[in-house]
Each structure stands twice: as structure tokens, then as C-alpha cells.
């Protein structure tokens, strides 16, 4: 049995399964671009390993085989890094990645066509792959939420993969110009033992990450308002109850603010529902801009938004209200300013041991109704 061909078969099958799974994930579950980017990278990996297997089976080490193989490694590694940045919403910086890939490919062409140096060609491709795996690992962690277990797993596997690629890069130099130098046997041993394991581990980790992302998307469909992107009534109730329970446990103050846009029904009648929807979305955006990441924001009725302000008393809640009030007066929709928008606010805060969402919500709602009766642009604290 040819061990090298067996390992190549494992790599090919793993890459094909990854390509298929991520393609299906992209096709049927929200068309996330990072899933498509990673699917293309896995497809390129399958092509790369197939080319290597065919060359080994036919004992054909022609220059074009080494060139195409090297180019595929560079492109695939680049796509892994780009996909990782796409997933977490980081700037893609495509010109930079294209430039780096072009430099690496130029190096491969020079080593094969001009210098005929297989060792340096391997050093370039493996070093580049190591760098891209580090870049991908650094981009896995989200910037605005707690890191998940699958993200930690992918980071660790990417780091291991990068270390393996760096080891292969160093060993490529020992293989010499012809690829059959004193270090060639060690290089092949590390390649045969390490690469299939690392590649398979990376595939499993990425599939685990995809499954977790899909689960989060399903949760978002259940708990998020599709128009504004904030929590819906169900999602808000769940997170608000958790926040209040935490405030009781830590003996921290907590405030609930309820607000709605004054005269929203007449606005809809005058300008139409599409315009009203854009006003709601803009109102939600400016509310989110004026609260902290740990605060809870939800659309709990047609044009009613509720805010749970963590570790905040009535005065701090009033400060948030004033900022929202100020920004609402300046809100521009479709480039149209001076819309004359105003809102009413009801504020309830508490630091008691028996505080509940029900009691706090009742007080905030009563305060909101009082503000509405008092006419536009009022805030009343209960």
C-alpha cells in the first residue's frame, strides 16, 4: 500500500466533504458569504490534493504541476483568512490580500521556472500558508460578544495548523534544491503524519463552528425583530428577566425605559407604511447607539421600544433619554431632515430584592401613558 497516496486520498475526501457541507450551508441557510468563501477554499484544496495524487501516481513532477499546486495553496490559504474576517465583520482588505498572494505566487514562479529550487518553493508556500492561518485565527474571535467554545476550538486548530506549516517551511529548506536532500525524509514524514490529522481537525472544527453559527441564526429568527434588528417581545422578555435576576443577585440598580414615537399612526397615514418602517428602523438604530453593549433593547409593541439599562438609576436613565431625544430631533430619513419627530418616555428604576419584570414594566408603562397624556416629548419617571 502506498502511504503517500492513501494520505492524499484522505485529504481529498476531507476537502470534498468540507466543500459540499459549506456549499449546502451557504445555499440553504442564509447565504452567508464566509461559508461560500470557505467552500471555494475547500474545493481548491481538493483540486490541489487531486493534482498531487495524479502527479505522484504517474511519477510526473513537471514544472506546471508544481506551479499550479503552489498557486492553489496560496489562493486557498488566502480565502481561509478572508472568510474568517468576513464572518466576524472585519474589513476584508482585499487589495492587501491580493497583493500578498501575488507576491507569493511570483515567488513560486521564480523558484520553479528560474531557479529550479523545489526547497525554496516549498518554503514560500508553507510560510505563506502559516501566515494566513495566523491571520484567520486572529479574526475568528468576535469583537462585540462573548467568545464561543467552537470559536476557541477553531482558533486553537488554526494555530496548530500554522505551526505545522511553519515546520514544513523550515524542513523544505533542508530538502534542498532538488527536493531530495538530507532533510527530505524528515519533511515527508512530518507531511504524511501531520497534515492529514491537522487538515481533518480543521475540517471538524469549522463544521462545528458552522453548526453553532446556524443555531445562532435560528435563535435570531425567533428572538429578533426583522425590521429593526433589535429584540422582539419574546427575546426582550427573556433577556430582561435575566438582567433583572442578575441585578437582584448583585444588589445593583436597574432601570426600564419604555418609549414610543409621538403621532406615529398619523405619520403612517400621511407618509405611508414604508416610510414609517424606515422611521422605526432609524429610531431603533439611534437608541442602540445611545446605550451600552450590555443593555437590553427590544421592540415590544408596534412603535413601542423598551430598554433595560444595567446598573443604572433613574438619573442615569434620564441621561439616556435626553440623548435619544436629542438624536431623534436630528433624525434624517431618505436624506430628509427636519421631520419634527418626537417621542414620549416612561422610566422606572429599582434596587429592591423583590423587583420583577412585571412590577417594573407596569410602572414604566404607567409612566409612558402619563407622558403621552402630557403630550409630546415628555419623560416621566415612576
From TrEMBL:
Molecular function in Gene Ontology: diguanylate cyclase activity
PROSITE patterns the record matches: GGDEF
SUPFAM superfamilies linked to this entry: Nucleotide cyclase
Coiled coil: none
GO CC terms of this entry: plasma membrane
Alphabetized InterPro entries for the sequence: Diguanylate_Cyclase, GGDEF_dom, Nucleotide_cyclase, Rev_trsase/Diguanyl_cyclase
Pfam families, per database record: GGDEF
Gene3D superfamilies: 3.30.70.270
GO BP term, example: cell adhesion involved in single-species biofilm formation
Alphabetic keyword roster: Membrane, Transmembrane, Transmembrane helix
Catalytic activity from the UniProt record: 2 GTP = 3',3'-c-di-GMP + 2 diphosphate
Transmembrane intervals: 6-29, 36-58, 64-82, 94-114, 120-141, 153-174, 186-211
Superkingdom as given in the UniProt entry: Bacteria
Enzyme class, broadest EC rank: transferase
Organism of this sequence: Sphingobium boeckii
The protein's name in its UniProt record: diguanylate cyclase
Amino acid at each position: 500500500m502506498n502511504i503517500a497516496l492513501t494520505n492524499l486520498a484522505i485529504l481529498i475526501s476531507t476537502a470534498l466533504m468540507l466543500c459540499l457541507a459549506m456549499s449546502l450551508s451557504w445555499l440553504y441557510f442564509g447565504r452567508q458569504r464566509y461559508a461560500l468563501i470557505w467552500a471555494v477554499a475547500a474545493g481548491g484544496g481538493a483540486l490541489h490534493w487531486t493534482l498531487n495524487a495524479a502527479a505522484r501516481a504517474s511519477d510526473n513532477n513537471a514544472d506546471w504541476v508544481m506551479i499550479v499546486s503552489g498557486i492553489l495553496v496560496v489562493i486557498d490559504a488566502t480565502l481561509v483568512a478572508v472568510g474568517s474576517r468576513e464572518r466576524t465583520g472585519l474589513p476584508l482588505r482585499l487589495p492587501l490580500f491580493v497583493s500578498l498572494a501575488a507576491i507569493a505566487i511570483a515567488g513560486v514562479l521564480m523558484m520553479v521556472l528560474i531557479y529550479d529550487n523545489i526547497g525554496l518553493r516549498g518554503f514560500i508556500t508553507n510560510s505563506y500558508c502559516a501566515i494566513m492561518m495566523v491571520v484567520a485565527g486572529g479574526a475568528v474571535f468576535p469583537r462585540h460578544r462573548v467568545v464561543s467554545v467552537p470559536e476557541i476550538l477553531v482558533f486553537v486548530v488554526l494555530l496548530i495548523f500554522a505551526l505545522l506549516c511553519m515546520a514544513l517551511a523550515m524542513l523544505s529548506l533542508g530538502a534542498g534544491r532538488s527536493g531530495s536532500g538530507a532533510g527530505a525524509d524528515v519533511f515527508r514524514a512530518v507531511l504524511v503524519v501531520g497534515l492529514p490529522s491537522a487538515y481533518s481537525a480543521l475540517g471538524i472544527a469549522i463544521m462545528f463552528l458552522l453548526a453553532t453559527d446556524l443555531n445562532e441564526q435560528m435563535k435570531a429568527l425567533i428572538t429578533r425583530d426583522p425590521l429593526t434588528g433589535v429584540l422582539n417581545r419574546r427575546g426582550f422578555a427573556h433577556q430582561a428577566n435575566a438582567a433583572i435576576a442578575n441585578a437582584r443577585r448583585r444588589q445593583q440598580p436597574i432601570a426600564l425605559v419604555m418609549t414610543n414615537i409621538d403621532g406615529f399612526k398619523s405619520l403612517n397615514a400621511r407618509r405611508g407604511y414604508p416610510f414609517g418602517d424606515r422611521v422605526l428602523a432609524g429610531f431603533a438604530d439611534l437608541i442602540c447607539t445611545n446605550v451600552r453593549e450590555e443593555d437590553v433593547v427590544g421592540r415590544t409593541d408596534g412603535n413601542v421600544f423598551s430598554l433595560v439599562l444595567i446598573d443604572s438609576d433613574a438619573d442615569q436613565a434620564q441621561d439616556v433619554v435626553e440623548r435619544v431625544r436629542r438624536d431623534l430631533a436630528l433624525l434624517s430619513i431618505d436624506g430628509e431632515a427636519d421631520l419634527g419627530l418626537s417621542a414620549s418616555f416612561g422610566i422606572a428604576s429599582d434596587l429592591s430584592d423583590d423587583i420583577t419584570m412585571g412590577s417594573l414594566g407596569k410602572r414604566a408603562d404607567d409612566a409612558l401613558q402619563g407622558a403621552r397624556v402630557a403630550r409630546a416629548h415628555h419623560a416621566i419617571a415612576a
